[in-house]
Amino acid sequence: MTPSAELPARPRVLIAGAGFIGRAVAEDLAARDRVELRLVSRRPPARAGAAIAAVAADLNRRADRLRALEGVDVALWLVHSLDRPDYADRDPALAAAFARDAAAAGVKRIVYLGALGPDDEAAPHTASRHATGRALASAGVPTVELRASVVIGRGSAVIEMVRALALRLPVLIVPAGAQALTQPVALGDATAALAEAALGPARPGIWALAGDDVVPWSALLTLSADLLGRALPQLRMPFATPRLSSLTLAALTPLSRTMSEALVRGLGRPAIVTDPRRRWPAPAWISLREALAAALGPGSDPKDSQ
Ligand SMILES: NC(=O)c1ccc[n+]([C@@H]2O[C@H](COP(=O)([O-])OP(=O)(O)OC[C@H]3O[C@@H](n4cnc5c(N)ncnc54)[C@H](OP(=O)(O)O)[C@@H]3O)[C@@H](O)[C@H]2O)c1
Fold it and tell me: Which of 13, 90, 104, 270 has minimal CB crowding within 10 Å?
């Protein structure tokens, strides 16, 4: 991909947040060799690949932000504090500070991966992700906000939760109100879209990033169980069971309590494309089954490498 006209021929790209998505998009961009890459988080990966400068920085500190932003043309914001109970306020505040410093540093474009879901009646997690997007755009740097439901890829916290439940649950209890629809996206499609948003023609604004499959949340589990060779019967409950669902997640999966609660509270809300004109375009999408098979396939279980 040739970088867009308003960017230099070899743009400097900052990837803020070396988590599941940040690392994957860094690898995708590194393979294109037309960019200079800086991957920043408090505990960056020890082995990030020769083409990636992995830098330790706490973006809550202004001095660290200014150092991370020096000479940067495009910034991808993939920071998330879901490990902290106060993430809902903390994330937008940090994003606003970053946006101000990015504008002052001459950053030409910000790209952010947020959460797919309605603006009204959004679950607290989704509302906080939307507020983070508004904060990033607030200082005047053209901002592309891609909103995704769940990103399906090897090693994500959600995939390890799905694996644990699909392997351990004798029966899937589906509470009333937890059958909202979701429209996941494969990790490969998500990183390609983030790379295109970073380097391709300028397309500021909010976009839905989603594959073609629209399914109820429970299908992630039943489909995964099927791929892992297990039958997972469903038991539908006539009432909501948020506490039971959170306790099940805490007992059977590696998810933190904050993450379990955020997930359970989101189950009743749809996370799908509502306006096809604002769906990020792609020549083809990886199917959900294919994405799950790749994420759960041989060699993917972190326990096997311990
Ligand atoms: N994963 C999905 O399925 C999914 C779906 C839709 C949208 N998204 C969005 O994608 C973005 C990234 O998600 P993710 O799954 O990659 O999250 P993640 O794995 O939790 O990564 C977030 C990273 O942010 C870094 N971070 C947090 N506070 C920081 C600070 N003060 N300074 C520097 N780095 C900091 C953390 O690294 P350190 O601990 O090393 O600092 C962490 O690895 C989020 O906006 C999320 O809403 C993800």
Answer: 104
